[in-house]
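Lab notebook: predicted structure, single chain.

Context: the supervisor wants predicted structures on file for every construct in the current expression panel, including those that have not yet been purified. This is the next one on the list. No modifications to the sequence; it matches the entry in the shared construct table.
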Amino acid sequence: MANLYVALMHYPMKSLKGGVVATAITSLDVVDIARSCRTYNVSRYFIVHPLESQRTIVQRILEFWRQERPSRVEAVEIISVMEDLEDCVHMVSEWEGQDPLIWGTSARPGLPYPRITWEEARKHLRTEEKPVLLLFGTGNGMAEELLWACDALLPPVREKNDYNHLSVRAAAAIILDRLKGDEG
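Prediction complete. Output recorded below exactly as produced.
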């Protein structure tokens, strides 16, 4: 069985006007995605931001949850705060002894990147040994340079819907359930 890792990326993201930006950390994403990751036995949840000031915010959020909400400690203990995607890949490679596959997520239909179906993704996680690093974007989604770093993209959660703007924490919970929800 392949180990699954999750990374919440904050750069490079698309802005409303199509430029490339770094997005802000939000406390709900930190904790809610950690809870989903822990529920679905994700090996590690990376929160990735290039700015030290934003990584410091994550550390403060984690301190609060460790001190004030001990019932949530088990979830936040799987969080690692990283500067960039390369740091995540390096860490997974050290733990696993091999580089992970990188799967991306995007709500944008028709992107020209390699795709993996839900069935293929579930089968890989159940039967293969190669770990997977699953990327989630913030803002208006991952910039093209980040999408090109992915080995494959999962389908959008609601591919044939005229309104497809879930929060990243809602999308993460749905995607984790689609990938690992049938595990015992």
